[in-house]
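Worked problem 6 (solution included).
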Amino acid sequence: MGHPVRTDDGRLLVAEDWGNPSGTPVVLLHGTPGTRLGTLLPGLAAQHPGFRFLSYDRPGYGESRRAPGRRVADAARDAAAVADAFGVERFAVVGRSGGGPHALACAALLPGRVRAAAVLVGLAPPDAAGLDWYAGMTPFNVREYGLARAHLGRAGPRWARTGPGRPGRRHPAGSGAPPGRPACRSLPP
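Solution. The predicted structure is:
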């Protein structure tokens, strides 16, 4: 399992391709921590038979090599390399959790290739009443988040205690968007 993809600078990314080979291509960007295998959700292709799914391990995760000095914006180049490896010209991107900023980078930096973008984010605090925060996470994520919480202490980092936006600042209605700016916008097809 796993398809090796060489980037233009010689790095190795490992990718997956599943679903309908002639369907609308969608690049799924995994959360942080995570790997491409976390996007292989049971029944996803069967529930969405008109789509072709591509995913890859971001640099430093899973089987993909690290990229010293890597920035979130570099996800656009990597997603394009994966799409090229599978013969895909235009595609949509979906970023889950920590993959969200990477999906937005792809949409912003590849306007001629990215047809649409979606970001899926959960904002519930880990200690919310009645919430099993770890339910549905991969064992890897449970371990990594457990280690992070143990390291940071139960209260977590300051930004986790003060809501969306800059530390210590709350935005109206908790939208995460600065005042006067929409929380999201549609991208052109």
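Discussion: Residues 139-152 form the longest helix (14 residues).
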